[in-house]
Specification:
35% strand, alpha+beta, two-stranded antiparallel ribbon, 562 residues, 16% helix
């Protein structure tokens, strides 16, 4: 084939950088082509396919154009090419390539290498590229020279065999890529974790439990820790198997009150590592998801607890009560369970769960359906980031004599809410309205209001009832002093039993609360970087029991996340 004739046809069109000779073009009158659907512009164009901006040619090609494409870049001016001088015989043709069609690329070292040999496969690949450019210009109603269209038709006819082979190759590659993308996922396990260290001390004039006027028994300054490692494994890219290991050495209820506990407290014996959580979740369709738990499941595993600035163990509140609504905590135990979520819209979702605290035990008053259990549901409406409201319900049951393992309110309030009926079996219905409102970039509100009604189910206290209340409001100041930092002030009333009946006049029962408790906490999260933070905190519990003086806690938390 006469290559000089072919390149002459390409001179004004400027088809490709792969030509070794490009001749000057004519000055044909431009026309405005409407579309490739127009028979006058389409009839001689073979069908072709795109694969991004790279080329792939026949395996027998002298040089792989796809490998060349990885090393060359688009040129916006012919003057960028160091080895093309204005006196070069092809200078005007190269200039036309850039100015009229942008159909030229150069090497990273800003050279054109016009003396390099060219194979028919490479020429076909370059021709296809410029045909794509022409097609785009025609579709966009850009003026195109009729002479250029005619030359392009002629070249398309002469290189029809190569273009068809090129198309076939591209099609095969697209099929292979689609196949690989569809099957590229492999079973993957991601390891994350955190390490929390806290320096703290408890103070006050008297112990909240035991005889009156007794000095605080366990308020010494201590350093405690909690370490967690999470293994998240996916088998399909959409499911997740979570296995969490934990080790900790905290002491609970210092000063005789739950109000001194930490958000992240745990009681494993020092040096022991336990499986703290084991869950598997997977989607059902586009809007639903199922959770199965062999160890530990709570509502906040499934639904957003709407506490963006206080809930996190590492970055949120340091106190236990100040972190999260107590409705999430009565079933925070090592029992198995299951849950689901369903999104009606992007803003509205519903979740539910069931948990059996001793579902792993075959003993009497234990097991999956005959022991402690909780069943709950929550409806979330979250129209914007950090802004939303939730309505949450939980029913939980505790068998007689199992209050050493379970609490009606999850150990977040006064002692009369843990065990209101003196070890009698009880069932409790909890109702909570939970909300968060980001008023500005620098200010947010969050909190909840909650009511619980408990009923005794056994022994002398059968059919006795209790009314339990709690609420909290937190004022958060994101990016206070530095981006990523947060300052928070929280005020509320921890769970307290305002009324406990005694229908059978049983002596020495747990009394109702006569002096309502109050809780105030302030903390400041200082982020050294994305992985390390320091949080000084101080909180006070007023009326931690009837007639008892306040207890206070000062703490310094250091968090490491990885």
């Amino acid at each position: 084939m006469n290559f000089t004739k072919q390149f002459a046809c390409l001179s004004s069109l400027g088809i490709t950088i792969l030509a070794t000779a490009i001749l000057g073009g004519g000055n044909a009158e431009p026309i405005l082509a409407q579309s490739l659907d127009n028979p006058s512009t389409q009839s001689n164009f073979p069908q072709r396919r795109r694969l991004g901006s790279t080329f792939s040619v026949n395996d027998n090609a002298q040089t792989s154009v796809s490998s060349l494409q990885a090393t060359i870049g688009q040129v916006t001016s012919v003057d960028q090419l160091r080895d093309v001088q204005p006196t070069a015989w092809a200078y005007e043709a190269l200039k036309s390539l850039v100015e009229r069609y942008g159909c030229i690329v150069g090497y990273p070292d800003q050279t054109f290498r016009g003396d390099r040999a060219l194979s028919r496969w490479e020429f076909a690949a370059g021709l296809n590229a410029c045909m794509n450019v022409m097609e785009r210009l025609i579709q966009e109603n850009v003026a195109v020279l009729r002479e250029d269209i005619d030359k392009l038709k002629l070249l398309a006819q002469q290189f029809e065999q190569e273009l068809q082979a090129y198309n076939t190759r591209i099609g095969n590659l697209e099929t292979r890529i689609a196949y690989l993308e569809d099957r590229q996922f492999s079973v993957t396990t991601k390891l994350t974790g955190d390490s929390i260290w806290v320096l703290s001390g408890v103070g006050g004039s008297e112990q909240a439990d035991g005889p009156p006027d007794q000095p605080v028994q366990n308020g010494q300054v201590t350093v405690n820790f909690r370490q967690r490692i999470n293994f998240n494994t996916s088998f399909s890219g959409e499911d997740n198997l979570l296995i969490r290991l934990q080790s900790a050495n905290f002491f609970l209820a210092r000063g005789g009150s739950n109000l001194t506990d930490f958000n992240f407290a745990a009681t494993e014996e020092q040096g022991n590592v336990n499986i703290n959580k084991m869950q598997y979740s997977f989607p059902v369709g586009d809007r639903a998801r199922i959770w199965l738990a062999g160890n530990r499941i709570t509502m906040d595993d499934i639904m957003d607890p709407l506490a963006p600035y206080t809930n996190s163990f590492t970055d949120g509140a340091v106190s236990f009560f100040g972190a999260i609504a107590p409705i999430y905590l009565p079933n925070d135990n090592s029992g198995p369970g299951a849950g689901f979520s369903y999104s009606f819209t992007d803003d509205l979702s519903l979740g539910g769960f069931y948990s059996a605290g001793k579902g792993f035990s075959p003993n009497q008053s234990e097991g999956l359906f005959n022991g402690q259990f909780g069943v709950g549901a929550q409806l979330n409406y979250v129209p914007a980031a950090n802004t939303g409201v939730a309505f949450s319900y939980l029913h939980n049951y505790i068998p007689q004599g199992q209050y050493d393992s379970f609490s009606a309110l999850g150990y977040t309030g006064l002692a009369n809410t843990d065990n209101p009926f003196d070890d009698a079996a009880s069932s409790t219905n909890h109702y909570a309205v939970i909300w968060t409102w980001q008023l500005a970039d620098w200010f947010s509100l969050e909190g909840w209001g909650m009511y619980s009604d408990a009923t005794a189910k056994s022994g002398d206290r059968q059919r006795d009832t209790a009314d339990i209340w709690n609420w909290k409001v937190s004022l958060a100041f994101p990016d206070l002093g530095k981006e990523g930092n947060v300052g928070v002030v929280s005020v509320g009333q921890p769970p307290y039993a305002s009324f406990i009946s005694n229908n059978n006049n049983v002596p020495d029962i747990t009394p109702a609360t006569t002096d309502a408790p109050w809780f105030v906490e302030t903390f400041y999260l200082y982020q050294f970087n994305d992985n390390i933070s320091l949080t000084p905190a101080f909180w006070i519990g007023i009326n931690p029991a009837n007639g008892r003086d306040p207890l206070w806690v000062a703490a310094l938390r250091t968090s490491f996340k990885f």
